[in-house]
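Fold this sequence, please.
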Amino acid sequence: MTSFTVYQDRIDFDDRQGKRSASAEALPLSMFRTLLSEFSKYPYYFGAFERVFMQQTTDYESGFEDAYGFVLNGASGYDPDAEGHIRVVFKGDQMKRGDFDYMAMAAPDTSTAYKRGRRIAPEETYFKIERAFCKSDEDRPLEWFREQIERVVSVAERLDRATASLESWAASGMSMRAVCAQSIFCSRRYGEADVISHERLSGYAQKGWSLDEFKSRLTCRRCGSPAGRLVPMSRLRPAEAEGSPGGGSGR
């Protein structure tokens, strides 16, 4: 097992060969920021069809820390002990010093093991990536992690193109599910009854509807709320079939 931590200026290894450092050029920290942003657009798709899973944890007791754990080649669900595990850490600052990667509302956690802490109103907190811890059994771990992150980015870019319009979505071979805007409160879950096939999408596209117009016509079958998000629910056609009339077969 090879484990290492990527920082802005270096990579620190701690494995069977002992402690050592290397340049971060082969696997720059910015790639992990990109991994998070691209995965976050299509989490269901990556878990269902690409075996990529993520879990977020927070630690606001002595500062602000968001950690995102990734499994890049998982069997079924997130497992921190799985091969190809990454833990990306972002540190938060409520003073907005310098540049940052994202903003979130956060409040210090004043609870202890024996006592509930007092409520503190959340404030704008600015998070910036600090480090990424990686572990793998691969012979060339830096190259393997780079290839896996590039795979995620490539799939996300294809999904961006496929879901850009109603016509492109229908042509992609993917079915669609409209997630209820009140999904936190509505008990409907992903299910066949809610899935719109790419054949049906093609019919709506032929009417000249835009994706926004189509979305505006969708309502939840349970609570009647409008659609909040449109989620790909089946696999993209193979990349080599993109742009070919009738290429591939939808599922």
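Residues 2 and 141 are 7 Å apart (CA to CA). Residues 243-251 have pLDDT under 50 and may be disordered.
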